[in-house]
Design goal:
Blueprint: H1 8-15, H2 24-35, E1 44-48, H3 55-63, E2 77-81, H4 88-92, E3 97-100, E4 118-121, E5 125-127, E6 130-132, H5 137-140, E7 146-147, H6 154-174
Parallel strand pairs: 1-2, 1-3, 3-4, 4-7
Antiparallel strand pairs: 5-6
Helix pairs in contact: 2-3, 2-6
Length: 176
């Protein structure tokens, strides 16, 4: 029941920090950061993208007091930007953790990244050359301290979190 966590009631609960289920892609991003040893607590995180599926819920989750992975995976200072943000590169270069979820192929380039920043590429775009993310991986990897690939980065974690939510929902149903 709402294992993708898109129902308006659950969206409201996410904003209050007490969701029934976490949105799959944002939860996958939090898991990548946590399991990669990248703490966001006290850091400046820039989320490029304001969608209801990724950008908004992810920003809310990262700014909460706590997370499923503990307080080190929350308590971030979060800035949400988008394709029409004036001087976007000035914002992205401030990020200690940069999350690209803008839906434009290779939109974030190495010049837009703070040296040593962790870069999470949520995007998945089809081009004539195949699949690519929202980050120009070739130029970004030269600057970033850590970076997720596309394909093979956030996508598999999205599926994993959907299965996690499905199992949690089944357990809830069995205990009723």
């Amino acid at each position: 029941k709402d294992v993708d966590a898109f129902h308006p009631e659950n969206v409201g609960l996410v904003s209050q920090g007490r969701p029934r289920y976490l949105p799959c892609t944002p939860h996958g991003v939090v898991q990548i950061l946590h399991r990669g040893g990248i703490e966001v607590a006290g850091k400046h995180v820039v989320v490029v993208g304001r969608s209801d599926i990724v950008g908004k819920p992810l920003a809310m989750m990262l700014a909460q007091r706590d997370s499923t992975c503990g307080p080190e995976a929350a308590n971030a200072t979060v800035t949400v930007c988008h394709s029409r943000t004036p001087d976007l590169a000035a914002w992205t270069r401030q990020a200690e953790v940069l999350i690209a979820a803008i839906g434009k192929p290779c939109f974030i380039t190495g010049e837009m990244i703070r040296p040593g920043a962790a870069v999470i590429d949520v995007g998945i775009n089809r081009t004539d050359d195949g699949l690519c993310g929202d980050v120009d991986f070739a130029s970004a990897r030269e600057v970033a301290g850590a970076i997720t690939p596309v394909p093979g980065g956030v996508g598999p974690l999205t599926v994993t979190m959907l299965l996690y939510n499905t199992l949690a929902a089944a357990r809830t149903q069995c205990t009723r």
